[in-house]
Amino acid sequence: MRISKKISRQTQFIIEQFIFKIIYYFCRILPISTVLKFGPKLGNLAWRWQIQSSGSIRNVKLAFANRFSEEEVEKIAKESFQHFGTEIMRIFVMDRFAKRPIEDWIDVEGLDVVKNRGKKGGILVGGHFGCWEIACFLIPAFGEPATLFTGKHSNKVVGNWLDNIRRKVGMKTHASADDRVELYETVQKEIVAMLGDFRPAKAAIEVQFMGQKTETAQGPALMALLKDVDLIYFSCAKVKDRIKVRFKKLEIEKTSSRKQNTILLTQAYYNELQADVEKYPEQYFWMHARWEGNPNVTYDDKQFLL
Length: 306
Hints:
Layout: H1 9-28, H2 32-48, H3 53-64, H4 70-92, H5 94-97, E1 106-109, H6 111-115, E2 122-126, H7 135-141, E3 146-151, H8 156-168, E4 172-175, H9 180-186, E5 191-195, E6 205-209, E7 212-216, H10 219-227, E8 231-239, E9 242-249, H11 258-279
Parallel strand pairs: 1-9, 2-5, 2-8, 3-4, 3-5
Antiparallel strand pairs: 6-7, 8-9
Helix pairs in contact: 2-4, 3-4, 10-11
């Protein structure tokens, strides 16, 4: 994600690393409640600087068509910035959250799906929705060994720092540059967690999401089919002062075509994600070019500086 095309990527990386370190160490000395209060302020700052704000508004319009007025659309987009400002701050103190009793602040639905899955391995697939990073400590806290597939981070220093935070709370990590054979072996022995709502550089498949043709990754569904393990949807929504976590096993009526099965299973994932987004639209990450590749959707270069 580019801050501005007026500066080089290397300069941006240095700025990101500096900001990341300052915020991280600042958060370590403050109470959790105070840290989270800075989240909406961080989101408002990004909104005022117009960092992807116009693109976010466009995405909300695409997703909800004529369901909301112009004012409501802008309100949802702005609240999304505030929400993810809070979630960024939560990451910095994730290890402190992990020490709190789960029942004091988290409600869990469908845990039996995880505990009673068909085989020892499994794939947990979430989206850029709600408080998804909570999975990093929640799954290990339930006594389930797990590995997070982190993909590729353009800023390796920040990416490595984030992975260290995740490992600190019990989640192993596997990057896209790591051995894929090892990942395929891992998914047969324990849970592999990943996000599924992104458009890969190649081998994308097409599904429907929020009424739009959507190019997306086939990896989670295809791996589940090839390794014959459960594909489980995971979401984590903030509801007032509590976090609502939901697990649901994704099932389809299989055909004789592996490609068609992959599409059907991926569509089942997007159906669950859409249900959550429609319920809590301000908790979706509207800042990325979700419908890039759709011939009916164009993004202004200034809206999404990727």
